[in-house]
Amino acid sequence: MVSVGVGLGLGLAVPEIGRGPLLPSRQVAELLLATGFGVLGAATVIFSVLFLVVQWAATTFTPRLTLFRDAPIVWRTFAFVVGLAVFCATAALTIAGRDEVSLVVPAVMGVLLLLLLALLRSLLLQAVAAIQLAPVLRSVSERGRRGLDALRASGPGGAGGPENPAGPGRPAGRGRLRSTVGWPGSGTVLQRVDTGRLAAAARAADAVVVLRVSPGTALRHGTTVAEVYDGELPASTVLRALETGAERVFDQDPGLAFRLLADIALRALSPAVNDPATAVQAVDAMEDLLLRPAPARVWAHEVADRAGTVRVVVPRPGREDFLRTALDDVIPAARNSPMVLIRLRALLENLRGTGHGRVDGPVGRRLAWVDDELDARFPRLRDALAKERAEGGDRAEGDTGRVGEERPDGG
């Protein structure tokens, strides 16, 4: 709508410019109409590329990957095409009853066409990147890092709230439970929570809202989404602060990045694809995210009003949730791939060595799981890795891959 408005305004204003050389208005009007109808074909190109890339990403990576579909360049280019068509049609009608028109009119049209070509070039380059593994992994990792940074800023020890590692419960020092808010609609996904709006409403009612679901959670009819303590707050007010949709989004859901990376690794490890190198690349991206600081387990993000009174409590995921999403499906799927098992073991060793996990904790349990898979399926490889650790030598990834190769003499 903004592009249509700008195109309409330019189509009315530009023909009023009388400076510069003059051209016959009839020829200029024909040029404008031909260009206006011609650029509409660019919309066909945009949607053709969109359909192809979305289908490719769904079948090659994961159907939950919507980076290109949601990319601003796609819809801004489409809006620019519509605005340019409106400008050409409006300007042609404006100069229809005149004998001559300024050269500025076709010049403006030419500049807009060049801008459209630049947008189409950027769109096509992004489409090419969206069907290649490395750019996709980088895009998912970047969004995951932003989500984890926001989680750390609001997490225990961060600037956004006090520590409550036990998760959301009855707020300390508050009154009794007043009401429970259930989801009244059909199945959907919680995408975002407008905590500022909800805190303002809770402050006006002198209430505390404790959410029982976090962004990324699937909601079903009757699902308890929140509890209201102290004051009386209508359920409709709470529900208006919840933004839902058909799919998970990155904004407030750092776990989505781990879900996508795990999906890519699982598809690569499926018998139909059998591409362990792709799975290793996905695990590389997982490690980059898992090594970033994050709360250890599920915790409660408390949002206070201007007076410092806690008004909204939102459950937020911790590192254990990320480990479960990233690894618990990939480890059994990698049981026939020594390359991936070795990479998973290196990831878990790195997590344990950097203080992100302990031997008897979630990291240690998964490390023992990977070792069991190596013992059961690749005992020689497991013995070689144990010998290397005993000697204190670290090999590069390429050397590690050659450890599993058997020589003709059985070595």
UniProtKB/TrEMBL annotation:
Pfam families: DUF2254 (PF10011). The keyword Transmembrane applies. Keywords: Membrane, Transmembrane, Transmembrane helix. The keyword Transferase does not apply. InterPro entries: DUF2254_membrane (IPR018723). Residues 162-171 have a biased composition (Low complexity). The chain crosses the membrane at residues 31-53, 73-95, 101-120. Residues 151-178, 385-411 are annotated as: Disordered. This is DUF2254 domain-containing protein. It comes from Streptomyces triticiradicis.
